[in-house]
Amino acid sequence: MNQSKPKFLNIYNTLYEEIRLGKFSGGKALPTEKSLCERFNVSRMTLRQAIKLLVEDNMIESIRGKGHIVISQIKKYHTSSVNSLQHPLHQTARFPMKLGSLNYRVDLQSDYTNHLFKNHPTAVIAIERYYFEENKNSTKADAFCFTFLPIDIVETYQINTQNHSQMKQFVENTIYQSATKSDLKFSSTKTPTFSNQQHVFEARLSCWLVVESIYGNQDIPILVNKWYLPQEDFEIIVSRMRQE
Questions:
Q1: Residue 81 DSSP label
Q2: Helices of type H across 170-226
Q3: Contact in structure between 101 and 199 (CB atoms under 8 Å)
Q4: Which of 26, 28, 54, 65 could lock 59 by a disulfide, CB 3.0 to 4.6 Å apart?
């Protein structure tokens, strides 16, 4: 029996291919629903069935008041499995990201830090990091990280806490080069908000909350990161392989 494809699948296939080939640029809106209905000669209900599939396939994002925004296909490069020991924000972001600001202070021992570190350090460096999409000028951050760094680790690695660049280099790069393993614990949290004098992070909806414990050669973490990654902008892929 020969049966033609439903109209919405034909629309989906056409728009999918046009987005893949770059006819519609990442970050830009598709033509209005009215113009697309006229182009394909279909009802708005039929069109929206195709739009729904494109949203589910992470090709577009529907934003109230802005329309259907094409998701940059650069994400294919930046989104990877989190099974390798790398910076998780850059592994999961759908867009290239940059660090906007890094602020830190010394916090004394508390029940929470004792929970994170079994050796109960007398103090930790509490670090706040605000991240932004590249080429984006805004005070509103697109991702946020809390870092807890025990004071004895600062001494072991001879980190000069008065040197802002050195602190940044350690938490952004050095730690991933020197660590032997990390644990990632995934959960979600709704509409978290953090701010300082420069920037604010305020998620519109839910965030991935990724608690990252990074280890050296002992079973006590070198540091712990708490990543707040908005689910509309970050994609977590876990690859698994059969063990022979």
A1: B
A2: 175-178
A3: yes
A4: 54
| Model confidence pLDDT, tens digit, residues 123-167 | 999 999 999 998 778 889 999 999 999 999 998 888 999 999 999
Element (H, E) at 33: helix 33-40
CA neighbor of 134 nearest in space, from 87, 58, 74: 74
Beta-bridge mates of residue 97: 133
With beta carbons less than 8 A apart as the criterion, state whether 89 and 143 touch: yes
Please say whether the beta carbons of 126 and 147 come within 8 A.
Answer: yes
Q: Could you tell me the pTM of the whole model?
A: 0.68
Q: Please tell me the distance from the alpha carbon of residue 74 to that of residue 97, in angstroms, as a whole number.
A: 11
**What residue type is 140 in one-letter code?**
K
Dihedral sign (CA 159, 163, 168, 169): negative
Per-residue pLDDT of 66-79, as tens digits, reads: 899 998 755 443 33
Please state, in angstroms and rounded to a whole number, the distance separating the CA atoms of residues 125 and 132: 23
